[in-house]
Amino acid sequence: MASPGSPARTGVWIGIAAITMSFAAYTSALVVRQGAAPDWRHFRLPPILYLNTTVLLVSSGTLEMGRRRIRREAAWGTGMPSQGVLWLSLTLGLGLLFIAGQVLAWRDLSAQGLFLATNPSSAFFYVLTALHALHLLGGVAALGYSMHRLHASAARTPSAALDAASLYWHFMGVLWLYLLAVLALRL
Amino acid sequence: MHDTPAPLVADRRETSGHAAHPAHAPPEGFLRKYVFSLDHKVIGKQYLDLALIAVVTGMVLSWLMRFHLAFPTTSIPGLDKLAPNGASGGVMTPELYLSLMTMHGTIMVFFVLTTAPFAGFGNFVLPIQVGAEDMAFPRFNMMSFWVTFLAFLVLIAAFFVPEGPPLSGWTAYAPLSALGKDAGPGQGTGQTLWAVSIALFCIGQLLGALNFIATTLDLRTKGMTLSRMPFSTWAWFITSVMGLIAFSVLLPACVLLLLDRVAGTSFFIPGGLVVSDRLQPHSGGSPLLWQHLFWFFGHPEVYIAILPGFGIISHILPVFARKPLLGPRVLIACLIAIGFLSYTVWGHHMFLSGMNPLSATLFSVPTLIITIPATIVTLLWIGTLYGARIRFTSAALFCLGFISVFVTGGISGFFLAQPSIDTYLHGTYFVVGHFHFVMGVAAMFGIFAGVYFWFPKMYGRMMNETLGKVHFTLTLIGVYCTFMPMHYLGLAGNVRRYSAFTDDYMKGSLPLHRFITMAALFTGAVQLIFFYNLIWSRLRGAKAPDNPWQATSLEWSTSSPPPFDNFGGHHPVVSYGPNEYGVPGPAGDYVMQAPSTRPATT
After folding, report:
1. pLDDT for B319-356, tens place per residue?
2. B17 close to A (CB below 8 A)
3. What is the pTM assigned to this prediction?
4. What does the angle CA B102 – CA B106 – CA B111 come to, to the nearest 5 degrees?
5. Which chain A residues are closer than 8 Å to B355 by Cβ?
6. B588: β partners
């Protein structure tokens, strides 16, 4: 764990506040738009979303496994954090798999004739899922960067960057659960 | 309270800052040093230079508008070359007038009033005032500036597209802003560029706010407790928290607006609209949704523009009053209260929007309540001046001017806060006078005070005080002559946003409009004195000592200009608050926050 005063960690918390605020804005726009006119068309969410959700939640677990291994390997001084890095790579893979799954969900929807401009409900579906995926790509980059730092540092100790990237990654999972609930309840 | 010994706050930079704060060696080469610099001092100056370019652009636009309002049939030489579609024969069309108004408002609010007092001075001064070597995330800081600069270029590009800039105002009300070409000249590519520019601006300012908050929380030097932070740093910190929330909402609004414009969605465009004889292919959108999202950002934005001014004035006044600021804790509490309340009042911009009249009452109450902390702050400044032997430097004069114009503009806000009165005044020049005083001129006076005060620290040279005083006096006269009559015009029912008052009942207002135009041109011309002073002082000004104003905060403990790492390799240890004026100290009637850092030369 980094000390409480780590700017990287503070920075991620500030980022979380900003992202939460922007998704709150999208949510309120969704609620207002749904009530603004009787043209809201409900549709069934692509079932693959639930599989994607599982993938993302599992990735949070593998990330924690990786961090634990890295800490332990650093404490034992085994040199190469091979197992830990493996878990982190698995996390990255699962993150990318989630995004691939989201792409499949979009294809599912477009196969039903629901595009961005078809209906406000489909518009919000594409906007919210795409923005979440974009933010998750940021998490992929941050995790990749902290793995690179881990590789580069001689001590092979978990860095503040990894700590901060993990916090962000878990937040992406929480944010997705929230969005899934909004989509399931409203669309 | 201020004499308690420094609590043992660990210098966090040394324990944990490495991840985000790489080893800090001065860069070499022109590009790294002056263009893509990671140094917060260079980035602060870049922001101020951007604001200077923007303010000149915005001011020229206002002159064109004012000239047309005063002499609606007189041709402006060269205007037909600049805007061939909007000014044949040099006389501007109403559409071109609205375009100029839109660009004037957007440039001034975003690229001057947000960049200069917040991003500009904040970047330069905040890290030094908390005793840090740099911002917490220097790379994000550099990106913040360059994204903002890109946003400015994208906005200016709207002048050069065939149909010209957008005409939907700086508030870009939907559906006008969401419809595209059919809605008027400039509503095609011009409006799209506007939305892209503002979205980029949001990203730039979010990166800036991230840095301000993390730096204030994590990089304070030993002994710099929250209660010892200078008032300016407090104001920038509160402003950055406000900016973080506000720009996080404007960005989604711009994304949805862009989708309405380019992807055919209907977030903001209602159904059945026939514009330019064409049925618009949209349905069910809510124009009010845009207003809510925009003003949820927009009202805090006016405080984002003015709170740094509050901080700058509260920081500078005690220096020249040679007295501690009255009620420092009350001041900070009021700033926090203003920041919080600013999120509850956005609906007062929408009294005429057709929303539920009960909501209008709901928004009116916090609007009146927010005047209480603002009034207390003003009284604290005046109380500080009471019995003071003021040193009338240019910076001090602009502080006094700030109080004057803020009170003048603020009082008209009391009237506008009431829905019944606002119904009459909202569409008139009364509102133009109000917000130009309270937000525009007041924030500008804050910027001027900041320039005269920190210029010696920034460039190592003193500004010319005589020119500064002439600049202040003429500017104060000029702005009162420009904006005061607007209140009378508004009370007389003179509507705003019209390009000319040539026919019917408004003809009688023309002489006053001519007077305002003369005053605006005069005030603009006076600014040449300021520009001359800026350039002359930078090249020829007297060498500035470390602490020319005998001030207490950390930026005056280091050299002028400060070295690359701000304190020449050592970290200052803070033992006192920033408010130690009028007390016996080693170098005069003040005690510096970090007396041991470096002997002050005055």
Report:
1. 999 999 999 999 999 999 999 999 999 999 999 988 88
2. yes
3. 0.94
4. 155
5. none
6. B585
B248/chain A closest Cα distance in angstroms:
5
As given in the structure block, the two tokens for residue B479 are 């702005």
Restricting to B residues 192-251, those with a Cβ less than 8 Å away from any Cβ of A are: 206, 209-210, 213-215, 217-219, 244-245, 247-249, 251
What pLDDT is attached to residue B4? Answer: 40
Q: Which of A19, A36, A164 sits opposite B286 (nearest CB)?
A: A36
**ipTM summary value:** 0.94
Task: Tell me the pLDDT tens digit for each residue of B528-566.
Answer: 999 999 999 999 999 999 999 999 999 999 999 999 999
> Which contacts qualify for B9-12: CB closer than 8 Å, 24 or more apart?
B9/B220, B9/B222, B9/B223, B9/B224, B9/B225, B10/A5, B10/B222, B11/B221, B11/B222, B11/B571, B12/A3, B12/A5, B12/B218, B12/B219, B12/B220
* Neighbouring C-beta atoms of residue A97, cutoff 10 Å: 16
C-alpha neighbours within 13 Å on the C-beta side of residue B424: 10
Picking from B259, B12, B124, B367, the residue whose alpha carbon sits closest to that of residue A122 is: B259
Closest-CA distance, B19 to chain A, in angstroms, reads 6
Indicate left, alpha or beta for B392 from its phi (over 0: left) and psi (-120 to 50: alpha).
beta
Picking from B12, B15, B286, the nearest residue to A32 by CB comes out as B286
For the stretch B216-267, pLDDT in tens is 999 999 999 999 999 999 999 999 999 999 999 999 999 999 999 999 999 9
| Burial track B225-256 (b if 16+ CB lie within 10 A, e otherwise) | eeebbbbbbbbbbbbbbbbbbbbbbbbbbbbb
| Window 240-269 of B, Cβ < 8 Å to A | 244-245, 247-249, 251-253, 255-256, 259, 263-267
Can you name the residues that pair with B543 across neighbouring β-strands?
B461
| Residues in chain B closer than 8 A to A123 (CB atoms) | 259, 265-267
Q: Tell me, what amino acid is at B237?
A: F
